[in-house]
TrEMBL record:
GO cellular component, one term: plasma membrane
PROSITE patterns hit by this protein: TM4_1 (PS00421)
Pfam families registered for this protein in UniProt: Tetraspanin (PF00335)
InterPro entries: Tetraspanin/Peripherin, Tetraspanin_animals, Tetraspanin_CS, Tetraspanin_EC2_sf
Keywords: Membrane, Transmembrane, Transmembrane helix
Membrane topology: Multi-pass membrane protein
Protein name: Tetraspanin
């Protein structure tokens, strides 16, 4: 969900998403060819299946290393995208509705507000024009705003001359902190899933190459001549 706004705004992340889709489609195709090769004992297809699995595994490891070493750069890029989204957030803008709904969903699910905190919303043009007497509903920590999951909500008993983000009934945690905390809490699960996928791919490679070696080509020199 957090990547949805970024994918819509960042060309590099869009490209990454398309690459992942392509890898998924290739994996399905290779799975079909692997089954076909195993059932019909076709060494060529089994060899192709082994090669593609090895390439996918190497690509996944390389992608993980790139993400790890480029984490700081990715964080800065995401920060710029989200801050721009918050600044230009407009519930009446249908052209950006999907993007804005995605960010509202992130704030509701993680129970956060803004990228670094609610102060990020002070740059929003609509809230500035309304002297901060409204606040993003998806940031709200009040039960009365649960039905309004997007757009802006009115601040009760607001004094136009003194209102700041500190007066809003919103979550204090920024979404970047929420995401980092979620990753820390679920790091074991994430590593377990990644390890499980890698083990399955390795087993597929081992089984395919073993079966490929055990399939013997027909020796046509032993065929009786008519």
């Amino acid at each position: 969900s957090l990547l949805a706004p970024a994918e819509m705004s960042s060309p590099s992340l869009k490209t990454g998403a398309y690459i992942l889709i392509g890898v998924g489609a290739l994996t399905m195709l290779m799975g079909f060819l692997g089954c076909l090769g195993a059932v019909n004992e076709i060494r060529c297809l089994l060899g192709l299946y082994f090669t593609c699995l090895m390439m996918i595994l190497i690509t996944q490891v390389a992608a993980g290393l790139v993400i790890y070493f480029q984490a700081a750069k990715l964080k800065v890029e995401l920060s710029n995208i989200v801050r721009s989204l918050i600044k230009n957030y407009d519930p009446s803008n249908d052209d950006e509705r999907n993007l804005q709904d995605a960010w509202d969903y992130v704030q509701r699910q993680i129970a956060c507000c803004g990228w670094d905190g609610a102060q990020d919303w002070e740059s929003n043009e609509i809230l500035i024009n309304k002297s901060m007497t409204e606040y993003p509903c998806s940031c709200s920590n009040s039960t009365k705003d649960l039905e309004a999951d997007s757009g802006f909500c009115n601040l009760d008993d607001a004094d136009n001359s003194t209102v700041t983000y500190a007066d809003w009934p919103v979550h204090e945690q920024g979404c970047i902190d929420g995401v980092e905390n979620w990753l820390k809490d679920n790091l074991g699960i994430i590593l377990g899933v990644c390890t499980g996928v890698a083990v399955i791919e390795l087993l597929g490679m081992i089984l395919s190459i073993s079966l490929c070696k055990n399939i013997h080509s027909e020796d046509y020199t032993k065929v009786p001549k008519s």
